[in-house]
Write a structure and sequence with these properties.
It is found in: Cytoplasm. The chain is α+β, with helices and mostly antiparallel strands. The chain has a single domain, classed as Bira Bifunctional Protein, Domain 2 (BirA Bifunctional Protein, domain 2, 2-Layer Sandwich), CATH 3.30.930. Helix content is about 35%, strand content about 25%. It is built from nine helices and eleven strands. It has an eight-stranded mixed β-sheet with strand order 1-5-6-11-10-9-8-7, sandwiched between helices. Strand 9 and strand 10 form a beta hairpin. Helix 1 packs antiparallel against helix 3 and helix 1 packs across helix 8. The longest helix is centred in the middle third of the chain and has 25 residues. The two termini are about 20 Å apart.
């Protein structure tokens, strides 16, 4: 069992008060985000067909929950891991124009996840995607969007403070940018997670860029599917989280692959067979818009803003009996 128990932990809010705070954060944040990035809320699928190529392959090892439908004989239906690819298709299908975008409530099951304070097999996030021009596929545009999201999160801290002043967790004002290679150069003797902890503890809030490709030591900082983010134009938004003494990832985002980087990255991962899927063909044929997008964890945001010790305090999921027992003994109130 991988569980961090903060010393003398006090959840401050009761379960019912926490539920009120969760609703307030979820309702308010999505309005703030949509206003900042010019996003329209849309409905999104819980499952897709395997042959569509829409599902997120994550690190390439996780298996989606799948089933069959009586009405679609011969089709494998998969519960989504995320909507990273579907969103880009939807922007084109619905006729969104440059600098317009969408967001949706994404619910996923990642059954192969190792559960702990921050990880659950149930994933809930705001998935967002925005149309950009091809000449806007730049580091500068990526960083502009990161700063907007950091600003919204900081504003949410103030909003929550008005409602729940005794419970709000205070966040840094600014974000620091660093690439995964620069991070390795800075801490060559640490592993990837240790490097994240070191840099985030130093600066408070960090956007770690360029994740997915191999670094100078021959390793990847972290796995990324090769067919949605451009590995040269993506990253993770990390906060130092004092209650757990670790880096806390709140968002993963990036500028999406174009027709060239898609092929390059698929070749690196030895999975060019994906080019047969309708989604991938549409990118090759330049039938889909150029976009930037990402996901922002709903439960994670609630957890961070309320200073909770375990993601199970802000979402309902399944946990090992040993973990549930330890949480009860240390005043961690799993929903």
């Amino acid at each position: 069992m991988n569980l961090i128990i903060p010393e003398q932990y006090n959840p401050i809010l009761s379960v019912r008060e926490t539920e009120k705070a969760i609703k307030y954060i979820r309702d308010t944040f999505q309005e703030e985000l949509s206003s900042a990035l010019n996003l329209t809320r849309v409905s999104a699928p819980l499952f897709v067909t395997e042959r569509s190529g829409f599902n997120d392959n994550l690190n390439g090892t996780e298996q989606p929950v799948s089933f069959t439908m009586q009405s679609l004989p011969g089709e494998e239906i998969q519960i989504v891991h995320s909507l990273a690819k579907w969103k880009r298709y939807a922007l084109g299908h619905y006729g969104f124009q440059i600098h317009e975008g969408l967001y949706t409530n994404m619910n996923a099951i990642r059954k192969d996840e190792d559960v702990d304070n921050l990880h659950s097999v149930y994933v809930d996030q705001w998935d967002w995607e925005r149309v950009i021009a091809k000449n806007e596929r730049t580091e500068n545009i990526l960083r502009q969007h990161v700063r907007e999201i950091v600003k919204v999160i900081k504003h949410m801290e103030h909003e929550v403070w008005y409602k729940f002043p005794q419970a709000v967790y205070h966040l840094p004002d600014e974000v620091t940018f660093i690439t995964s290679q620069e991070l390795l150069d800075r801490y060559p003797d640490l592993n990837a997670k240790e490097r994240e902890n070191a840099i985030t503890k130093e600066y408070g809030c960090v956007f770690l860029e360029q994740i997915g490709d191999r670094l100078s030591n021959g390793e990847k900082h972290d796995g990324r599917a090769p067919d949605y983010d451009d590995w040269a134009l993506n990253g993770d938004l990390l906060y130092w989280y004092e209650p757990l003494q670790c880096a806390f990832e709140i968002s993963s985002m990036g500028i999406r692959v174009d027709e060239k980087s898609l092929v390059t990255q698929l070749e690196k991962e030895n999975c060019t067979e994906r080019l047969k899927y309708p989604y991938h063909k549409a990118i090759l044929n330049q039938e889909l818009p150029y976009t930037i997008g990402g996901g922002i964890g709903q439960s994670r945001l609630c957890m961070m803003l309320l200073g909770k010790a375990h993601i199970g305090e802000v979402q309902c999921s399944l946990w090992p009996e040993e973990m549930k027992k330890a949480c009860r003994q240390h005043n961690i109130q799993l929903l």
